[in-house]
Amino acid sequence: MTALTLSTAGAATLRADALVVGVAKGAKGPVVAPGAEAVDKAFDGKLAAVLETLGASGAEGEVTKLPAPSGLKAPVVLAVGLGRAPERDGAYDAEALRRAAGSAARALSGAKKAGFALPTESAEDAGAVAEGALLGAYAFTAYQGGEDKVAPKSSKSAKKSGPKQPLGEVALLGAKPRDKAFKAAADRAVAVAEEINRARDLINTPPNDLYPESFAAVATAAGKEHGVKVQVLDEKALVKGGYGGLIGVGQGSTHGPRLVKLAYTHPKAEKTLALVGKGITYDSGGISLKPAGHNETMKCDMSGAAAVFATVVAASRLGLRVNVTGWLALAENMPSGNATRPGDVLRMYSGKTVEVLNTDAEGRLVLADALTRASEEAPDAIVDVATLTGAMVVALGNRTFGVMANDDAFRTAVHETAEEVGEASWPMPLPDDLRKGMDSPTADIANIGERMGGGLVAGVFLREFVGEGIAWAHLDIAGPAFHEGAPYGYTPKGGTGSSVRTLVRLAERTAAGDLG
């Protein structure tokens, strides 16, 4: 993990591999953002003109490297675009700072230390820059750079250096290290970013190494380290407890399902927030096998469980005055002679029966059991997170998750929370008329309904398993959970850790009493 320091050094005197400054789009060309005054001075006040000559415009995410003049200790200046400059005396948007810092950190992979002289007028600004830099510096290299055991030791192939390592240290300049608010913002950024990156690691881990049992072991180890109580129900306990959804989905695999409970408690907490995560460690579709071309990224189908796990640990690390309980519904969905068949009927933990018409609509089955179990503890609110439907990607694209709820005010609060922390989301309805499409002549409900509005149908199904009187929201993160394109901002290729920032902020708001 990249280290973060609040440096007392000035930009001109900091010894580092590079200095990062911000540049924005002004009315008449690029303008240097606050924080870079000392660097601009070293360029005789002509940094913006030099950047414009090199083709820089200040557009969001644009990166321009140039050699530093003699007045700076660092050999390289990296100018990163912030987008349009704010109105006179206006502040830069936190998300713009977060993305710019992420772009800069990615561009500096392989460097040992960089000074970030981006705008940090407030503690919020400093936290955004720190968070963006730490997230942008992420790289998943666990399976790269191995020694070539076939090639002769003297050959060039045996001397491969492996992938570039992430930026080693982010030195935040102008962030007032002796100010309690700035220190708290930096500490929060470290805790949240480290847990998001932990979630990313889990999402990126190949399914031959990450399966329900091994995921549960990771959660157990982290719980011991961070004071979170962990309880794991294995196949025998799930069968005995009547968790028909988890057993039904997981029975086709040699890796049995697990239900993991993570409990962070605060002695002065007045509210309890329950989080439920879909944890399909690999989704083949089961007997309703996915077509060719749709299997390769299905290791990411446990992104919801990874987000819940990361959030509970982050809440503990931050010492939030709220009880946060996480439920990881873990299973591997595989076809075999023992797999659930289309037409089978499962008796769920709630007692309801479900006719399985499509075994690739499995996420809602494991979530249903976990939602019922979470409801038994009567939390003040439940939020489930899942890469649930391709229909939500069709509706909202690859960067926005959908928010559904059984309470309009709670749905609005979750949506506003996501927007506050820079995660794109959109409120979606749960039309009652979609319930009829899941009527079954054999069971209480079928696991699929109308094809149109499939993301909403899934939400309507889940609502059936939430306890009476409990505020509940469903986040369908199927789009933003796994990024297959080129990295941008602080978003890497592969697992993103989508929704962790939203859930952590929701826990903070709950602790502060902002959610009622």
Automatic annotation (TrEMBL):
<keyword id="KW-0963">Cytoplasm</keyword>
<feature type="binding site">
    <location>
        <position position="301"/>
    </location>
    <ligand>
        <name>Mn(2+) 2</name>
    </ligand>
</feature>
<keyword id="KW-0645">Protease</keyword>
<dbReference type="GO" id="GO:0030145">
    <property type="term" value="F:manganese ion binding"/>
</dbReference>
<dbReference type="Pfam" id="PF00883">
    <property type="entry name" value="Peptidase_M17"/>
</dbReference>
<dbReference type="InterPro" id="IPR011356">
    <property type="entry name" value="Leucine_aapep/pepB"/>
</dbReference>
<dbReference type="InterPro" id="IPR023042">
    <property type="entry name" value="Peptidase_M17_leu_NH2_pept"/>
</dbReference>
<keyword id="KW-0464">Manganese</keyword>
<feature type="region of interest" description="Disordered">
    <location>
        <begin position="148"/>
        <end position="170"/>
    </location>
</feature>
<feature type="active site">
    <location>
        <position position="364"/>
    </location>
</feature>
<dbReference type="InterPro" id="IPR008283">
    <property type="entry name" value="Peptidase_M17_N"/>
</dbReference>
<feature type="binding site">
    <location>
        <position position="283"/>
    </location>
    <ligand>
        <name>Mn(2+) 1</name>
    </ligand>
</feature>
<dbReference type="GO" id="GO:0005737">
    <property type="term" value="C:cytoplasm"/>
</dbReference>
<dbReference type="InterPro" id="IPR000819">
    <property type="entry name" value="Peptidase_M17_C"/>
</dbReference>
<keyword id="KW-0479">Metal-binding</keyword>
<feature type="binding site">
    <location>
        <position position="278"/>
    </location>
    <ligand>
        <name>Mn(2+) 2</name>
    </ligand>
</feature>
<feature type="binding site">
    <location>
        <position position="360"/>
    </location>
    <ligand>
        <name>Mn(2+) 1</name>
    </ligand>
</feature>
<comment type="similarity">
    <text>Belongs to the peptidase M17 family.</text>
</comment>
<feature type="domain" description="Cytosol aminopeptidase">
    <location>
        <begin position="358"/>
        <end position="365"/>
    </location>
</feature>
<feature type="binding site">
    <location>
        <position position="362"/>
    </location>
    <ligand>
        <name>Mn(2+) 1</name>
    </ligand>
</feature>
<feature type="binding site">
    <location>
        <position position="362"/>
    </location>
    <ligand>
        <name>Mn(2+) 2</name>
    </ligand>
</feature>
<feature type="binding site">
    <location>
        <position position="283"/>
    </location>
    <ligand>
        <name>Mn(2+) 2</name>
    </ligand>
</feature>
<keyword id="KW-0378">Hydrolase</keyword>
<dbReference type="GO" id="GO:0070006">
    <property type="term" value="F:metalloaminopeptidase activity"/>
</dbReference>
<dbReference type="InterPro" id="IPR043472">
    <property type="entry name" value="Macro_dom-like"/>
</dbReference>
<dbReference type="GO" id="GO:0006508">
    <property type="term" value="P:proteolysis"/>
</dbReference>
<dbReference type="Pfam" id="PF02789">
    <property type="entry name" value="Peptidase_M17_N"/>
</dbReference>
<protein>
    <recommendedName>
        <fullName>Probable cytosol aminopeptidase</fullName>
        <ecNumber>3.4.11.1</ecNumber>
        <ecNumber>3.4.11.10</ecNumber>
    </recommendedName>
</protein>
<keyword id="KW-0031">Aminopeptidase</keyword>
<comment type="function">
    <text>Presumably involved in the processing and regular turnover of intracellular proteins. Catalyzes the removal of unsubstituted N-terminal amino acids from various peptides.</text>
</comment>
<feature type="active site">
    <location>
        <position position="290"/>
    </location>
</feature>
